[in-house]
Write a structure and sequence with these properties.
Blueprint (H helix, E strand, L loop, with lengths): L6 H12 L4 H7 L5 H10 L10 H12 L4 H7 L4 H10 L7 H7 L1 H9 L4 H8 L3 H10 L7 H9 L2 H11 L16 H6 L2 H13 L18 E5 L3 H7 L5 H5 L10 E5 H5 L13
Antiparallel strand pairs: 1-2
Helix pairs in contact: 4-5, 5-6, 8-9, 9-10
The structure holds zinc ion.
């Protein structure tokens, strides 16, 4: 139990704090005392610095931590840095669990989230552990950690990830310098579908196999005919959230002949939207 403080004690505590020491240092300097007493004392004197952690946040941290929440997650929930949280718990006389022990307690959650396809980082963020801690646990549990290629394949199954990449890399036709995978991408699959080739054929027939810019006809050696999208194909896919051939087939906007035009290779290469590089010139 803390002893009864005299006004003189209180003044010393406040002076020491105002001199620039942290609450922790004040507690250590005036042993036996505790964090709450010092905090209240300084606060009553109107000397509390704005970045000090108030009682509510400390209590929240302690409660969460004692109920088994990992340190990192409890600290985040209480809006306290991990280092400060560590000190607060120590000052409150709470034993800090080893990191290994903490993650072992959440073993099932870690394994379950990882098996659902979340990345090491996402699992770590959700549960409040580092990427390495998650990785080590999975290894201890004998779970095969996915390699980069497997992760990429898995990521394709997640709409938000695909949308991000579709927008970032455009058509994913393999020409992008950023694209290093050898996977069959959704765009490629759609371009390889029967519906796509029908649409393409439809445009060629309508244009009588003639370049709509320069009038070149088909079968000119070295200058084949292409079918160009007036509104870029990749933008259409992104606009309609299309990631599979099935979704594509059900989207009439993709198969509108009016959005296609026949161009010879030379004319096509000179368009700004060729190969998905809308707005970029090389
Ligand atoms: Zn042409």
């Amino acid at each position: 139990m803390p002893r009864k403080y005299t006004d003189e004690d209180r003044r010393k505590i406040v002076d020491y704090y105002v001199a620039g020491h942290s609450l922790r240092e004040v507690v250590e300097r005036f042993t036996p005392t505790n964090y709450t007493t010092v905090f209240e004392c300084v606060k009553a004197a109107g000397a509390l610095r704005s970045n000090e952690i108030d009682k509510d946040r400390r209590e929240k941290l302690i409660e969460l931590y004692q109920s088994g929440t990992p340190l990192r997650r409890a600290a985040k929930a209480a809006n306290i840095s991990e280092g400060a949280a560590n000190r607060i718990l120590k000052l409150a006389g709470i034993d800090i669990r080893s990191k290994k022990g903490a993650i072992n307690e959440c073993k099932q959650d870690v394994v379950s989230l990882y098996s659902q396809g979340f990345t090491l980082e996402e699992v770590g963020n959700k549960l409040g552990f580092s990427v390495n801690a998650v990785y080590q646990l999975l290894k201890r549990e004998g779970i095969q950690v996915r390699n980069l290629k497997q992760s990429q394949v898995l990521n394709w199954l997640r709409p938000e990830y695909r949308t991000k990449l579709l927008i970032k890399f455009g058509s994913f036709d393999g020409n992008s310098p950023s694209w290093k995978g050898g996977m069959e991408t959704p765009t490629r699959q759609i371009r390889g579908s029967k519906t796509y080739s029908d649409w393409r054929r439809g445009v060629l027939v309508r244009d009588r196999f003639t370049c709509q810019e320069c009038g070149t006809k088909k079968n000119v050696k070295g200058n084949p005919l292409h079918v160009d999208h007036i509104y870029p194909f990749r933008k259409l896919l992104a606009d309609h959230n299309i990631f599979t051939v099935e979704q594509a087939e059900e989207c009439p906007e993709l198969w509108n002949l009016d959005n296609g035009r026949t161009l010879c290779k030379k004319c096509h290469l000179s368009t700004e939207t060729w190969g998905g590089r809308a707005g970029k010139r090389r």
